[in-house]
Specification:
CATH topology of the largest domain: Alkaline Phosphatase, subunit A
Shape: globular
Largest sheet: 11 strands, mixed
CATH superfamily of the largest domain: Alkaline Phosphatase, subunit A
Number of strands: 29
Structural class: alpha+beta
Number of domains: 3
């Protein structure tokens, strides 16, 4: 019998009553470190012999390791589930780019809960849940933010980042730089409780890493290989291993600084990753990788320590997930959650403290591109309807649905009920049936409730709390001959703008009528300088000339593996067009050329509209 999330939560509250009745007299600090595209098998604590991760491993050895911890199959959904304690589809997160990554503004976050309780809150790294206010991290409970809001970034050395909404230039390798700022935040707030969220963007591609780490692996034979060895790109694996050791060094820097500031005993440290490995490599024999809802795509490392409170050296075999972090961390800290929407996650403190003599059966659901996979403590029902005994068959080799029809039926009913609960009856009726592919309707495939065509949210502009609204190429639509610099939108720019018929548009909503300064981040070769351009919105427009020339080279010198499907980047400069009055309302922001002076107008990375 499936137990509801509410019943599970009540059960965990009762089991943790002893701790809850005596919340910590001094509120504990919280440090949450999130790796990007790091698989369960990428840590030495999980058996990887190719890599050394002593600092990350120490969190588990001095605390607790959750051996079966589940996240989403791609980045933005996991971040949304950590932030809210709710399945990502409930909060509007339907993908990883072009606006689909945005977390609805009526969702309440873990940062808002800790901020309301008097904590200093800061995030340092990859946000990936919205770029403009009120989707921006500064609007979601984080008082301090340094990093980038996109899904992935094309520059890892001295990158262009942002600090509380304003563009800045980072210093050195991106993971080192993010760590510098996280440590500075800890130092500045050491006298009061803080929540420090460090969402790194490695070992996500592009595969760039400093020489001091690369030289350890450059000619490494990579003795421990994945099951799909013929698919493995060993050069990518070497890069990931090198990037993982860089992450480990930076985790060590944070842990040492907590020791030096005498904060370790009163700081809860969490380490996990956002999805399965981003390439075929060793992952403990599990099936699937990033993008898959099979075990290898959604099982992630999860380690947590709290010296003096959590008994060290234990491994928890019970299933848990990113949805459980908000209720667990708020309970451990004695912080009330904010918001009234029901949580999908449960408080894991009984498992942390070893007080859960019996833990109820539960099912954790993984959703990607219309397919749903369900994981119980013993079984996994995959998105095609195959059932696997994960205790006897961790590699999902043998479908036992015929041998276990009652269990298969139970899991199928659970998936159907989850679909209806999350998407509603109408969407569930047109979605792929549990264990089946999307069905055809009127000659078209349906079943992807998260499809881009269903997302009707404009990009917001014009908030006094956050005057600068960035509108990157990622969020725009190219028309005519204009193309993206690469297939992956997240870190791309518009190019091949050659005609007065070409346009780029952004679906925006101006929140406040007013005067807006307009700047376009551009590059333009000397022989193409002088085109006349126009930016228009409803009845308003502004024109200008493309000048001076700015034609920097692509940054290609630091990659260890050539990029496939994602753009090499270059340094863009702002072209200041002046100011224009925009009326509140929704419409298409359109960029076009009125006259083309050379072979092409310019390349466009971003438009910034700043309320004056």
């Amino acid at each position: 019998m499936k137990i509801s999330a509410a019943a599970l939560l009540l059960f965990s509250l009762l089991l943790g009553a002893a701790h809850a009745a005596n919340p910590p007299t001094t509120p504990p600090n919280i440090v949450v470190i999130l790796a990007d595209d790091q698989g369960w098998g990428d840590l030495s604590i999980n058996g990887n012999k190719n890599v050394r991760t002593p600092n990350i491993d120490s969190i588990g050895r001095s605390g607790v390791v959750f051996d079966r911890f589940y996240v989403c199959s791609v980045c933005a959904p996991t971040r949304a589930e950590f932030l809210t304690g709710r399945y990502h589809s409930r909060g509007g997160v339907r993908g990883v780019s072009t606006g689909l990554e945005r977390l609805n503004t009526d969702e309440r976050t873990v940062a808002e809960a800790f901020k309301a309780a008097g904590y200093a809150t800061g995030a340092f790294g990859k946000w990936h849940n919205g770029s403009q206010w009120p989707y921006h991290p500064n609007a979601r409970g984080f008082q301090e933010y340094y990093g980038f809001t996109s899904g992935h970034w094309g520059e890892y050395f001295n990158p262009v980042l942002e600090h509380n909404g304003q563009p800045v230039r980072g210093k050195g390798f991106i993971t080192d730089d993010l760590t510098d700022h996280a440590i500075a935040f800890i130092e500045q707030n050491q006298a009061k409780p803080f929540l420090c969220y460090v969402p790194y963007n490695t070992p996500h591609s592009p595969f760039c890493v400093p020489d001091e780490y690369w030289r350890h692996f450059e000619k490494d034979p990579v003795a421990q290989r994945g099951l799909d060895g013929d698919k493995e790109d060993v050069q990518v694996t070497r890069s990931v291993l090198a990037m993982t050791e860089n992450i480990d060094k930076n985790v060590g820097r944070i842990l040492r600084r907590l020791d030096e500031l005498k904060l370790s005993d009163n700081t809860i440290v969490v380490y996990f990753s956002d999805n399965g490995p981003n390439s075929w490599r060793w992952n403990g024999g599990m099936k699937g990788r990033k993008g898959s809802t099979d075990e290898g795509g959604v099982r992630a490392p999860f380690l947590i320590r709290w010296p003096g409170h959590i008994k060290p050296g234990r491994t928890v075999p019970d299933i848990a997930g990113a949805i459980d972090l908000l209720p667990t961390l708020t309970k451990l800290a004695g912080v009330p959650r904010v918001g009234t929407k029901p949580l999908d996650g449960v408080d894991l403190s009984p498992l942390l403290f070893g007080t859960a003599s019996q833990w109820p059966d539960r099912v954790i659901f993984s959703h990607q591109n219309g397919g749903v996979s369900a994981r119980s403590p013993r079984y996994r029902l995959d998105s095609r309807g195959a059932l696997f005994d994960m205790s006897a068959d961790p590699g999902q080799q043998t479908d036992i649905s015929a041998q276990k029809p009652d269990e298969a039926a139970r899991m199928t009913r659970a998936v159907d009920a989850w679909r209806q609960d999350v998407f509603g009856a109408a969407a569930a009726a047109t979605a792929a049936p549990a264990g089946g592919k999307a069905v055809a309707k009127n000659g078209k495939k349906v079943g992807k409730a998260q499809a881009a065509s269903d997302d009707n949210r404009p990009y917001p502009v014009g908030y006094r709390e956050f005057p600068r609204a960035p509108l990157p190429a990622r969020d725009g639509v190219a028309h005519g001959g204009v193309k993206r610099s690469a297939g992956a939108p997240n870190s791309s720019y518009f190019t091949n703008w050659t005609s007065t018929e070409d346009t780029m548009t952004w679906d925006i909503e101006v929140h406040q009528t007013g005067t807006y300064a307009v700047a376009i981040n551009y590059t333009c070769a000397a022989q193409d300088v002088g085109s006349t351009i126009e930016l228009s919105f409803n009845s308003a427009s502004i024109t200008g000339k493309v000048a001076p020339a700015w034609d920097p080279p692509l940054n290609k010198g630091e990659d260890r593996v050539p990029r496939v499907g994602e753009s090499y980047m270059k340094d863009f400069r702002p072209l200041e067009l002046g100011t224009v009055r925009l009326e509140a309302g929704r419409g298409k922001l359109t960029l076009r050329a009125k006259q083309v002076a050379g072979k092409q107008v310019m390349d466009v990375r971003l438009i910034a509209l700043t309320l004056q």
